[in-house]
């Protein structure tokens, strides 16, 4: 997670990370 601090100013990266989190949460909800 250290690389996130160095690229903190990249809005595209933050948006992509948010999308990944939401997608992962959906998969976890379906799995249980």
Describe this structure in words.
This protein is mostly helical. It has one domain. The protein contains 2 helices and no strands. It has helices spanning 2-6, 11-31. The longest helix is centred in the middle third of the chain and has 21 residues, at 11-31.
Quick overview:
Helix content is 81%, strand content 0%. The chain has helices spanning 2-6, 11-31.
Share of β-strand residues? under 5%
Number of strands: 0
The mean pLDDT is: 81
Helix fraction? Answer: over 70%
Number of domains: 1
Distance between the termini: 27 Å
Give the overall form.
Answer: elongated
Sheet/helix structural class: mainly alpha
- Spans of at least 5 consecutive residues whose pLDDT stays below 50 are none
Rg, nearest Å: 12 Å
Largest sheet entry: none
Count of helical regions:
2
What is the N-to-C succession of helices and strands?
HH
Keywords: Receptor
Protein name: TonB-dependent siderophore receptor
Produce the secondary structure layout.
Elements: H1 2-6, H2 11-31
Protein name: TonB-dependent siderophore receptor
Keywords: Receptor
Organism: Pseudomonas tremae
Salient structural properties:
32 residues; 0% strand; elongated; receptor; TonB-dependent siderophore receptor
């Amino acid at each position: 997670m250290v690389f996130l601090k160095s690229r903190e100013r990249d809005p595209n990266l933050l948006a992509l990370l948010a999308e990944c989190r939401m997608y992962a949460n959906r998969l976890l909800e379906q799995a249980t």
